[in-house]
Amino acid sequence: MDIKLINIGFGNIVSASRVIAIVSPESAPIKRIITDARERNQLIDATYGRRTRAVIITDSGHVVLSAIQPETVANRFVVSKDMAGEEK
Question: What is the distance between the terminal CA atoms of the chain, rounded to a whole angstrom?
Answer without folding.
Answer: 13
